[in-house]
Amino acid sequence: MKKALLVIFSAGVLSGLSLGAQAADEEFYGVIESRPQGDVGTWVIGGRKLNVTKDTELEEDHGPLVKGACVEVEIEDGLVHEIESKKKEKCTK
Fold first, then answer.
1. Could you count the other beta carbons within 10 Å of the beta carbon of residue 43?
2. What are the tens digits of pLDDT across the range 60-70?
3. Out of 3.10.450, 2.40.50, 2.60.40, 1.20.120, which CATH number does the structure's domain 24-92 have?
4. Alpha-carbon distance 85 to 93, whole Å?
C-alpha cells in the first residue's frame, strides 16, 4: 500500500512540475514591421519582438513575408513555431 501511494504521489508531483514549466501556447495576428535580411533573427510583428530560429516554419500561402504583410504567429512552449501570411482583413479587425 505504501509503495502504491508513493507512486501516485510521485506521479502527481512530477506532472505538476512539468505543467508549471510549460509556457502557454499563443496565436495572434499582426503586421510585419521589420525583419532580418534572412529568415533567422529578430522580427517585429504587431509591436512585439520575436526571435525566429531555423526551426520556425515560414508559410507564404497568402503572399510573401515582407514588411507590411499581415501574418498569423503561433508560439509554442515560448518559441515562435510558425509565421504564416494571411489576407489583410485578418489584421484590420
1. 23
2. 999 999 999 99
3. 2.40.50
4. 16
